[in-house]
Specification:
This protein has helices spanning 41-44, 74-83, 93-98, 158-165, 195-205, 230-241; strands spanning 10-14, 20-24, 27-31, 61-63, 86-89, 104-106, 112-114, 117-123, 135-141, 144-148, 170-174, 179-182, 185-186, 209-213, 224-225, 244-246. With 259 residues, it is of the alpha/beta class. 45% of the residues are buried.
C-alpha cells in the first residue's frame, strides 16, 4: 500500500533569486520567495530584470532560511501568513513576531508535516555569523527528497546532512560567490558558494540534480560583486562530477520533479 507521502508527483519550480515553489497534490510550499527588491537597492543595486509577482492564493505555505531581506520579503510573507503558514528556525521566530508575522518555529532536525510534505531545518552557515541565523530546509514527499540551501557558505556539515537525510533528488544551491563590502563587513573572498563550491556541496549531499539559485539578478560594485561566468563554470563542474546541472529561468519547472 502506498503511504500518503509517496502518493502523487512532486512538482518543483524555480522562482526569482533564491525562491523555489514545491507542489504536491493540493499542497503548495514556497521557500525564500522574493517579490520586493526595493529594500535591497542600497547594497545590492536594482535588479537586472523585474521580479515576477508571487501567487499568494489562500492556503499557500512558506519557509524562510534566514532574515536577510533578499530571502525574507516581509510584505510578501505577511500576505502569505493570513491564510497559510510561515515556518522558520526557532531563534528567529521572536523577531518575526515583533514584525507581525506569527511563524511556526522549528529547532534544527525537528520535522514538521505540511500536508503530504515533511519539512526539516538543517545546518547552514552564513558569512555574517549569528545575525542571520541561517538554516537549510530539507523537504520530502512523493518519494523524493530536496534540499534548499539558502545562501550558505561552504561548510563541513554536508556529509552529516547526507547521512541523516540524503541522498537528494535535487539540491538548490547558491552559486554567485559574492564579494560583499558593506555594514562593516569586508572580505576579498566569496561569502557565498561559488559555482564550483555549489557542485561540490551537491556531490557531498548525494544529489542527482543540482539547481543553481541566488545569482544573475544583482551586481553592484563595489558593495556586491557577483562571480563572472557563473553558468559555464557551473555546467563544467557538474559535468566533471557526473551530476545533472539545472540552470532554470524564473518561473520555470525544475527536473526531475516531473519525470
Amino acid at each position: 500500500m502506498t503511504s500518503p507521502d509517496q502518493a502523487g508527483t512532486l512538482h518543483l519550480r524555480r522562482l526569482a533569486w533564491a525562491g523555489v515553489e514545491i507542489r504536491l497534490g493540493d499542497t503548495r510550499l514556497l521557500i525564500d520567495p522574493l517579490e520586493h527588491a526595493e529594500p535591497l537597492a542600497p547594497v545590492m543595486g536594482p535588479p537586472r530584470r523585474p521580479l515576477p509577482p508571487i501567487d499568494t492564493s489562500p492556503g499557500t505555505h512558506a519557509l524562510i532560511t534566514h532574515l536577510h531581506p533578499d530571502h525574507y520579503d516581509h510584505e510578501l510573507l505577511a500576505r502569505l501568513a493570513v491564510s497559510g503558514t510561515v515556518g522558520c528556525h526557532a531563534p528567529i521566530a521572536p523577531t518575526l513576531a515583533e514584525a507581525g508575522i506569527d511563524a511556526i518555529p522549528q529547532e534544527l532536525e525537528q520535522p514538521r508535516h505540511i500536508g503530504p510534505l515533511t519539512v526539516t531545518p538543517v545546518t547552514s552557515l552564513d558569512w555574517r555569523g549569528s545575525d542571520a541565523d541561517q538554516v537549510a530546509w530539507v523537504v520530502t514527499g512523493a518519494g523524493q527528497r530536496i534540499i534548499h540551501c539558502g545562501d550558505t557558505m561552504w561548510h563541513g556539515n554536508w556529509w552529516q546532512i547526507a547521512r541523516d537525510h540524503g541522498p537528494f533528488d535535487v539540491a538548490f544551491v547558491p552559486v554567485n560567490g559574492v564579494i560583499a563590502r558593506f555594514e562593516g563587513y569586508e572580505a576579498n573572498v566569496p561569502v557565498t558558494m561559488t559555482p564550483e563550491h555549489a557542485v561540490e556541496a551537491a556531490a557531498a549531499l548525494g544529489a542527482t540534480t543540482v539547481c543553481a539559485i541566488h545569482y544573475g539578478l544583482f551586481h553592484n560594485p563595489p558593495t556586491y560583486i557577483e562571480q563572472p561566468d557563473i553558468e559555464p563554470r557551473f555546467r563544467r563542474a557538474a559535468k566533471e562530477r557526473g551530476i545533472t546541472a539545472a540552470l532554470v529561468a524564473d518561473g520555470e519547472p525544475v527536473p526531475p520533479a516531473d519525470r
